[in-house]
Write a structure and sequence with these properties.
Elements (H helix, E strand, L loop, with lengths): L1 E2 L10 H13 L9 H21 L6 E4 L2 H16 L3 E5 L4 H12 L3 E5 L9 H7 L4 E5 L13 H10 L3 E5 L17 E5 L10 E5 L25 H39 L4 E2 L10 E5 L5 H7 L4 E2 L1 E2 L1 E4 L2 E4 L1 H5 L4 H5 L1 E5 L6 H22 L1
Parallel strand pairs: 1-11, 3-4, 3-5, 5-6, 6-7
Antiparallel strand pairs: 2-8, 7-8, 9-10, 10-15, 12-15, 13-14
Helix pairs in contact: 1-7, 2-7, 3-4, 7-11
């Protein structure tokens, strides 16, 4: 099996697995306990918090551990809304469901949500954010890179724009960290971090919250994570996340060069075999590991099914009970239903090889040819 679905999840790095196992084997105390076993584990969690903070350029006190990206995004959006009480939020029209659906929930609570449109390459233009602003806007949430197309948003520019107006700026950096350079800098007030997107364990993530940002908890219990996220910490998961962050900092440039070479090789070979394919977000800055490709005359879901035992990748649509819904991201970029339904996402990882790219291109082109023939 050639695995090209690394934007869905990555395989945990062996060093990460070792860190998780070591923690499970030795970190037996509850970090909230005051005895020696508890203090030892608390110190380990504190050390790992500092490792995560170091990767994204913030202080350890600004890192709050969660169960993953969905919880982090919910805490950022709902927590900010609860602290504000009422008002207006601006998001992009191509956000992940953990942001867009959370905002739909906030609308039922009386908050006003605006969704800024994107260009044909999936990029939010700051002018469109300005047009969406209201006098009661208290938050902007725009993802750093899109999970489907890999398009990277101008978050520094957006963050400066927000800061000048006293608006909190949140970015979902789930797809970016460990794949492309990222720092919270002076422009990001809240940042979502997801471990399993960059070779860490599933079920653990973090939310960076800049000091001074007002936010309320959305879960209730004891006073863990400075009172913002109750529940005994996932100590072994945190150890795995920290190791993944450590490896990301050490190996980032190598990963970028490697995955960039892989995707260029893959697309070049696909284009030679299927000359009529097209690349979505072609002119946008993109994640080095991500290709969103349209194959005319082929339903992506059929291609995924045809190659399910040979190549793992994603379709640009969701299907339930035989009905396929085009990706909202691709539709917002101006693609037709037919174009969106013919889109596949190929996302390479650090462990893929050039030979795999060549073989994957051959398998995809042959399967596409068979599907075209059967439909004609």
């Amino acid at each position: 099996m050639i695995y090209l679905d690394n934007n869905a999840t990555t395989a945990a790095d062996p060093e990460v697995c070792d860190a998780v196992f070591s923690s499970l084997s030795s970190d037996n105390g509850n970090p909230s306990s005051s005895h020696r076993c508890g203090r030892s584990v608390s110190e380990a969690v504190g050390h790992n918090r500092a490792v995560v903070a170091d990767l994204i350029g913030c202080s350890p006190e600004e890192v709050f551990f969660t169960s993953g990206g969905t919880e982090s995004n919910n805490l950022a959006l709902i927590g900010s809304a609860l602290a504000q009480g009422k008002g207006h939020i601006v998001i992009s029209s191509v956000e992940h469901p953990s942001v867009s659906n959370t905002c739909r929930h906030l609308e039922t609570l009386g908050f006003i949500i605006s969704r800024a449109p994107v260009s044909a390459d999936g990029i939010v233009q700051p002018d469109n954010l300005i047009k969406a602003m209201r006098s009661d806007t208290f938050m902007i949430s725009v993802m750093h890179s899109n999970n489907e197309t890999g398009a990277i948003q101008p978050i520094e520019q957006i963050g400066i724009f927000a800061r000048e107006r006293g608006i909190v700026f949140h970015t979902d950096a789930a797809q970016s960290i460990g794949k492309t350079p990222f720092s919270v800098g002076n422009h990001t007030d809240m940042t979502t971090i997801v471990s399993h997107k960059f070779y860490g364990p599933k079920g653990i993530g973090a939310l960076h919250i800049r000091k001074g940002i007002k936010i309320k908890p959305i879960l209730f219990g004891a006073g863990h994570e400075q009172g913002l996220r109750p529940g005994t910490e996932n100590v072994s998961g945190i150890a795995g996340l920290a190791k993944a962050c450590e490896l990301a900092k050490r190996d980032l440039l190598q990963r970028i060069a490697h995955t960039s070479h892989l995707t260029k090789t893959l697309y070049r070979r696909l284009k030679a075999l299927l000359p009529d394919i097209a690349l979505n977000a072609e002119r946008a800055p993109r994640l080095p590991n991500t290709l969103s490709v349209r194959i005319p005359g082929v339903r992506a879901v059929d291609l995924v099914e045809a190659l399910k035992d040979q190549v793992a990748f994603s379709a640009g649509s969701a299907c339930h009970a035989g009905l396929c819904t085009p990706s909202h991201v691709l539709k917002q970029m101006g693609l037709s239903d037919e174009e969106a339904l013919s889109t596949i996402r190929l996302s390479a990882g650090k462990d893929n090889t050039e030979d795999e790219m060549i073989r994957a291109a051959e398998l995809i082109s042959k399967a596409a040819g068979r599907l075209r023939s059967s439909s004609s």
